[in-house]
Design goal:
Strand order of the largest sheet: 7-6-5-4-8-1-9-10-2-11
Number of strands: 16
Order of helices and strands: HEHEEHHEEHEEHEHHEHEEEHHEEEEHH
Shape: globular
CATH class of the largest domain: Alpha Beta
Largest sheet: 10 strands, mixed
Structural class: alpha/beta
CATH superfamily of the largest domain: Alkaline Phosphatase, subunit A
Radius of gyration: 21 Å
Length: about 450
Amino acid sequence: MKNIFYIVLAFTFAFFAKGERPNIIIILSDDAGYGDFGYMGSTEFKTPHIDEMVSEGIQFSNAYVTACMCAPSRAGLITGKYQQKLGFHLNLPHNYNHSFGLRTSQKTLADYMKNAGYKTAAFGKWHLGHEKRYHPNQRGFDYFYGFAAGHRSYFSLEEPDKSTLAYRMERNGEYLEEADDFYMSDALTSDAISFISKNKEEEFLIYLAFSAVHYPMHAKEQDLKVFEDIKDTNRKILAAMTKSMDDNVGRLRQALKDMDLEENTLLWFLNDNGGAYNNFSDNGVLRGGKGGLSEGGIRVPTAIVWPGKLSSGIKMNHPISSLDIAPSILAMAGEQVLDLDGKDILSPIIQKNDFTERDLFWASQEIYAMRRSNYKLIRVDFSKGPKFWLFDLELDPGEQVNLAESAKSRVQEMNQSLNKWIRTHKSADFRKNDYLKDSEKEMRLREWMKFN
């Protein structure tokens, strides 16, 4: 049955002949707060270009990533698979003496799209391994401009940081000097626009992974001046960093218009995980943030824009996942991939069909979560036995009321499905620093979920 399903997907977009298929641009922000965009309700931050983009497409109010932190979230997005199956369930170590990275035997979205005849390019933060074997040019991307690390300065590097090669800006493996007026968000966008200009006669896939608004807190002076009414210094800097990213989304979209590519380019915008504590982001009504499996750690702003092909101004409540990016895009390219964990969500949208229900799962060390319909289960594996939290997200998006005691049969049923999912990846080559004392788990859970 599964094979039949994917064969159907392969023909869903058969009317797109080579040369007529859409260009694809995935825009990924970093550590942004759920409530820190204008279209998400912010009255402090100014994001008119992103707001306009979202208004011209479909906004998803129940969109998730596969992990509550940067690197594993990217692994899930770029492969279309739960990263636990790849032994990539934790962030990479902060030092760059390690040899961790995305398993080289695993194909990426770029590999598949390159096979389909697309030109492929990645810009910005990579964070899937800094050794040559993990380099974007080895993982299906024809072109790469960015850096390998999980964060770095937004301005040109000081001499001490240049010694860490993972921080250095590079183009296709060649390390670059950075101009005095270098600012990361501007540089990434300028290079992406240059790539589009040189490849506008071909179909292309672009993965534009802004480092904004990840720590460190670096903003341009002219952007800070726009937010003089924000008294909190940290929030002011974050607002300015967000504005710069927004300005560059506007620049990118204007370039597409100028090159007559707007109507044949699909943009998929999302954030990599919940807003972080160290960049002072605001996750709005959601509980917790980056690093935790509460909604504030894994539910992210998401929108898809494809002028003339997708309806505009639509808000969809059906849960989707970053796992869905790969199969959705591959379906349009006519590629048949049988073993992905996501599903094509573009076909039912275009054909105005209903989505099928499915469970979503998460794991972070010995804390687990799953969503089924409106219900979210969180489980912590303490030594004396698991402890459960159950929330009805339709009625309680802030996860304030634990229903586990009053709905024990639902907890048991969902937990059985969770255990079945865990068994699908239990043999993966995990890093072996997963085990915490109960007191450490309790402390981490309280911090991540912000319990009183």
